[in-house]
Amino acid sequence: MERSLEATTMENTTSSCFLMERKALVKINRKEVMLAKLRKSCSCTPQKLKNFVMDFFPVLRWLPKYRCKEYIWGDIMSGLVIGIILVPQAIAYSLLAGLKPIYSLYTSFFANIIYFLMGTSRHVSVGIFSLISLMVGQVVDRELLLAGFDLNDDAPPALGDECYAIGIATALTFVAGVYQVLMGIFRLGFVSMYLSESVLDGFATGASLTILTAQVKYLFGIKIPRSQGHGMLVITWINIFRNISQANLCDVITSAICIVVLVTAKELGDKYKHKLKFPLPTELVVIAVATLVSHYGKLNEVYGSSVSGAIPTGFIPPKVPEFNLMLRVAVDALPLAIVSFVFTVSLSEMFAKKYAYTIRANQEMFAVGFCNIIPSFFHSFATSAALAKTLVKTSTGCQTQVSGVISAMVVLLVLLFLAPLFYSLQKCVLACIIIVSLRGALRKFRDVPARYHVNKMDTLVWVVTMSASALVSTEIGLLVGIVFSMLCIIVRTQRPRTALLGQIQDTNFYEDDLEYKNLSTVPKVKIFRFEAPLYYANRNYFLKSLYRLTNLDPNLEAARRKKYEKKEKQHLKKGNHRTVNGLGIGETTLQLVPKQIDFQALVVDCSSISFLDTTGVNTLKEILKDYKNLNISVLLACCNPSVIDSLKRGGYFGRDFECMQEMLFYSIHNAVLFAKDQNKLSDMLLPM
């Protein structure tokens, strides 16, 4: 009877715990591969040189194939519209950067030309961007204060102040561009992976609050110093409320009218965007009308309203950024380079996916890097792709970056001839344009409940990043967001979900017993699932969860048994057949095992364990040994090849892997069948 049962058990075991044959791994000589790549990269042939040049300047590939009749009108229309939008935005964003409007126009012009030559995206609009302008402006203001310049708005303009400010901006831009090119050379684009969507959204929203705060004083015409350092947002609002009595009535009325007009036009444009062939140039109309009113109403002379001032025409002679200033801003340039690159590449990938073509992320890094390096010699500051302008570009028929050249020509027209016409333009009008442009970022607050409903942890990352960016500083906020996001990932793997599984009725599948109804437990078998990699940081949590869910700590149970066995031997040695409690030895034996173990096999579902480190392997070896001392077998199921290799190297299966077939299974059900067969065999072999 015993032999027949044992034979049946072995047949079932053989059918359920077979081992799949692994493919032989081909060993790669990494040294030879590296040398081959080095020889290939160092070799120079005419064809390779041609390919290098055409890859570095993608315009050489797509421009000869340009379908003029099909593309030209869409590119011209989108280029004109973006150019018209660029002019007022460039002048407005100069307030954020703390620079004269002429430098913003230079930036918009050169960025469009260089990206036309080097960019791989057909649709993104690269140029001046509010967030980048803010980051540049914070560094410029800090260095001006350290150099002893007066940042008060009512201070008379100084030539040295302006020259030093643009010197700081160009040095910062040059270093940021060098960082981006170096990241492209060493293929460090993976850095952008650490900026999750929650971090970027929180960073953009927090920076938008900072931008909004910086513009409020222009809305009211209040003369307060530009705040610097940590807590700028709070300090600025305190100064605004302290000086609110000094508000300029002319600026307040102008601001109210401009905001109403701009918001109304934006809302109507969003509502009827499908009927409009191109967006309404509201900003340009508002600037033109406001400039005429200010000029003929003499608002600066009569009411003391702050105006843009003289904007020169033409180009200032190029100048090499100063090396000593580069050293001062080298640290500040790093977050600027990363943010600029991440926004550009993410937008490029988004629109490439939408319009079914591909971009080269590494070339995008080179493109945005040279969009910073080359213009820095021509008194320009840092640039990036901007979502709002890119959306307008695509909605007006953009097909290629020829539209960027058209936009650059519009800006060039302003630079050469029309710039002096903006002398009387009020700063409060520019502030209104900036604030209204922040609508999209500020609307993120409305999405918080929906975001919280989808993922609470991501919402927490968004809130922390946004708060740090707004209340501390933009650079610190970005760093805090990245670190906090990583900590959240670590916490998730340190305390992952754990569960005991039950069998779905009439199936070979198993699921969480607490999450699903009508699951049947497997007699004398516990199935434990751990939903994370097993490594040094979550080892203790793994063991605690296992002991808690199975209601058995093998170490405590083993220690308890040894203790009572020792006491029993002492009583027997003394010849005392009765215990201190007056019980007989037979009754005492019942007390020696206070807990009846209700399982003989433990199945560990490893399907969610993506990798094991040395600590993880040792942890599994530890529970294998501890449960074996209690006559409980430990079976592993659903291990991936990486985990199996780690277990082999760690000696989990023995020296020659002789026990591997009885310890490792490719499905939970196979492991359960094996455990049942083993339990039946052990029950039959027990003495009657």
Question: How is the topology of this model organized?
Answer:
Layout: H1 2-16, H2 30-42, H3 46-56, H4 59-62, H5 68-97, H6 101-118, E1 126-127, H7 130-146, H8 159-185, H9 197-220, H10 232-242, H11 249-271, H12 282-297, H13 299-303, H14 323-354, H15 361-376, E2 384-385, H16 387-395, H17 402-418, H18 427-437, H19 439-442, H20 448-454, H21 456-471, H22 474-494, E3 498-504, E4 510-512, E5 519-520, E6 524-530, H23 539-550, H24 554-573, H25 585-592, E7 599-605, H26 614-628, E8 633-637, H27 641-649, E9 664-665, H28 668-685
Summarize the structure in words.
- The chain has 688 residues and is mostly helical.
- Helix content is 62%, strand content 5%.
- The chain is built from 28 helices and nine strands.
- The chain has helices spanning 2-16, 30-42, 46-56, 59-62, 68-97, 101-118, 130-146, 159-185, 197-220, 232-242, 249-271, 282-297, 299-303, 323-354, 361-376, 387-395, 402-418, 427-437, 439-442, 448-454, 456-471, 474-494, 539-550, 554-573, 585-592, 614-628, 641-649, 668-685; strands at residues 126-127, 384-385, 498-504, 510-512, 519-520, 524-530, 599-605, 633-637, 664-665.
- Strands 3, 4, 5, 6, 7, 8 and 9 form a seven-stranded mixed β-sheet that branches.
- The radius of gyration is 35 Å and the shape is elongated.
- The protein starts with a helix and ends with a helix.
- Mean pLDDT is 86; it is low at 1-17, 579-583 and 585-592.
In short:
By secondary structure, the chain is mainly alpha-helical. Helices cover 62% and strands 5% of the residues.
